[in-house]
Sequence to fold (373 residues):
Amino acid sequence: MYCHVENIIDTSDKRWFLITESETGGILREPTKYLKHKDRENCSPNTVKKIAFSIAYYLNYLAEQRISIRQVLQLRYMEQHEHFVAFLYWLREGNHTTDRSKRPNNTTCNSYLQAVFGYYEFLQLQYDLEGEIKVLQSRTIGYGGLYGVRYHKRVSTFRGYLTAEGKGGKTIAEEKIRKLLSSTDNIRNKLLLLLPAETGFRIGEVLGIRYAEDIDYENHTIQVVFRDDNENEARAKNAEIRRAKISEGTFQLMMLYMTEYRRLLKETPYLFVNLQGETIGEPMNVNAVYSVFGQLAKKTNIEVTPHMLRHYFANERRKKGWETILISKALGHKQIVTTERYMNVDDAEMTAAMDQYYAKNGGLYDVERVLQG
Fold:
């Protein structure tokens, strides 16, 4: 049975549903329960949306293959492995969409399958289904913490994932951020670049900042607070409070922005508002930020996204010696492996590190004695 995703207003909240493409067009029960479960886990709306589309793609793939979820659970290891790998290549070829020109990259395909595995886990726990996902392998990863303490965590992985393109996530160089900053005289737009780069906050977290509640003006810190009632639908990903300190320069710029646009800001609790047009004075939403960044990209020929600024934050802290666990906490990651994917170590940095090591420690064998002898 084929299906599609719809966004429906349910008791004043927007929720994602999977709708069958039959004549009745009914809501699919099990996926709806899972999406509601993820809502209750305080997952961000964007995360729930991605999960909804991932499940829809997979259910349509199952319909094409004429196989059910229960039958997949009964497959042997090699058959299951081939089934999920085939799903990844089905996605890669753009079979999940009518626009074949928009083919997802390997990392995106893998993320869709990760969401599907989460759905399988829910179904097995909720309905005690027979069979299992045999292709997921559990392994222990170790990582360094504060004061040299080592931590270990059990994670599940699938060996059939497509090879990710490139190393780490897509980041942006500091010199490019500086060029973007100098290309605009708009103070708000400068802040939209600086805050994610200096705090590591997600764009939904930045847009959810309330200037009277979330900013410590004495200590120059900003906190992320989980709220599900923001007017602009901005939302922190996890139900936790995180704080970040901003530089003196960025703090002063923020004060200048709040002074310049005080008349607009006094009508709303949000730090970032629209400055012109029909929606002037209303809190900015994510689409408005991407529009601003798109205009800056056209002006400078420099690609920039909020997520690239988060990657910049992570890599700059790593280069300055921060422990991975500190970077992970600053980014609001639940899993340390997610943080590790943000790290970009290029060949030049690796070469410099190796040169520095040998200059300080030397080699294993003192060849000078042989040469002198």
About this structure: The chain has 16 helices and seven strands.
